[in-house]
Write a structure and sequence with these properties.
The chain has 408 residues and is mainly alpha-helical. It has 15 helices and four strands. It has a two-stranded antiparallel ribbon with strand order 1-4. Strands 2-3 form a two-stranded antiparallel ribbon.
Length: 408
């Protein structure tokens, strides 16, 4: 327990300076605030991750993987909802673009960086060339496909509407329901302790364990409540101070800080010999961000405005969204045979690096950035087409799992 106490104290101390600054109403430079509030959001994310993972012993594993993926990205939701809320209060402001940028960045970061990390780390550890998924994982693949298909409908309307929230919420809710019906993915998983601090918590008596789970979750939620807004504003101010396009910092820096805890948890699964669970956690994370995160943007805008609003996609945001949808389709094609090869991971990472580098090189040339986004999106789709066509039988099997979850 001493290691667990040390990590909890470390997380609390990491968030303490930001909380003091926030509660005292002090102000410092934008870069200092970015560091203080960024560390606080990161610390809160880790506490949420530990509490969610520790709850796994008492819940269906299929359900908990989905819930863990949801809870651990609450910092990401908080930042993006703040931007969307402000966009509702000022629909002509840059906050509209910030909300969309944060959402597309978070989604592409997961697939372009987190997924490759899983398979490359697995190869480095075991020399196995692929992570093999179980037949039950067709549930995640099927729902990710459904959400990605709906994304192209959003592209046709050029806006994210309130009714999109209803559709996307239904997709995610059905996914949770289906995951809850799924039995343990592997019988011996329930006998293996969770990695990291969550593993220590699972060894405690249920009553003590749930006190810790609740305490960590509440503490983290309070930190996020107080720090999400100044963190979001510090990113914008820091970009201007450094002469870097704030749009790019919001798209990549904010998701990197908020996604780090859940990616770390997934990495621990791989290190402790459960690469399938690590990758599945990342897929679940992608599903919830590709459904709930998108759908909640017009809701937050509506709350901010006090009347119904939709999130418009300008030419840049339209192509950013198109690229994100295309990347999702390509990622699905790489999973469709229930094997994620290390070469697939390298391709995803390489294409991701290209888009980020091009965006920074041409950050002051909007037309070139838009052209590069469109080109990369079509490249993803062209690469996906032959793989998907040859994997149609597997895709049909995934659709059947929406009705009846089969057990291997």
């Amino acid at each position: 327990m001493s290691r667990f106490y040390f990590l909890v104290v470390l997380a609390v101390l990491g968030a303490l300076p930001a909380m003091v600054i926030r509660l005292a109403g002090w102000h410092t430079s934008s870069l200092n605030e970015l560091a203080f509030f960024g560390v606080a959001v990161l610390a809160a994310g880790f506490m949420l991750s530990w509490s969610a993972e520790a709850a796994e012993r008492d819940l269906s594993q299929g359900l908990i993987l989905a819930i863990v993926a949801l809870i651990t990205v609450l910092p990401e939701y908080a930042v993006d909802m703040y931007y969307a809320f402000q966009a509702g209060r000022a629909p002509e402001s840059q906050y509209v673009h910030y909300a969309a940028a944060n959402m597309t960045g978070a989604n592409r970061l997961l697939v372009g960086i987190a997924w490759p990390i899983m398979v490359i780390l697995h190869w480095w550890r075991t020399r196995e060339k692929a992570i093999v998924l179980a037949p039950v994982n067709l549930v995640e693949i099927g729902f990710l496909f459904l959400a990605s298909a709906y994304a192209f409908i959003i592209l046709l309307t050029n806006r994210i509407h309130l009714w999109d929230f209803a559709v996307l919420f239904t997709i995610f809710g059905t996914y949770l329901w289906q995951a809850g019906r799924t039995s343990e993915r592997e019988e011996d998983d329930g006998e293996t302790a969770e990695p990291g601090p969550a593993g220590i918590l699972t060894q405690l008596r249920p009553s003590i364990r749930w006190i810790w789970i609740a305490s960590l979750a509440v503490t983290a939620s309070v930190i996020i409540l107080f720090c999400a807004e100044p963190f979001a504003e510090a990113i914008v101010a820091s970009g201007r101070q450094l002469g870097v396009n704030e749009f790019l910092l919001i798209q990549w820096l904010a998701p990197l800080a908020s996604e780090a805890p859940t990616i770390t948890i997934a990495i621990l699964f791989v290190v402790y010999g459960n690469a399938t669970k690590g990758l599945t956690t990342m897929i679940s994370d992608k599903i919830n961000q590709w459904t709930l995160l998108i759908g909640m943007l017009p809701v937050a805008m509506t709350i901010g405005a006090g009347h119904p609003l939709s999130l418009p996609l300008d030419p840049r945001q339209h192509e950013e969204f198109f690229l994100t949808a295309a990347q999702s389709v390509f990622a699905i094609s790489l999973l469709i045979r229930l094997r994620f090869h290390w070469l697939s991971g390298l391709i995803l990472a390489g294409l991701f690096v290209v888009q980020v580098v091009v965006a920074f090189i041409h950050q002051n040339n909007e037309s070139r950035v838009i052209a590069s986004l469109t080109t990369l999106a079509w490249l993803y789709l062209l690469l996906s087409l032959p793989i998907l066509l040859t994997g149609i039988p597997t895709l049909k099997a995934a659709m059947k799992w929406f009705v009846v979850v089969k057990r291997d």
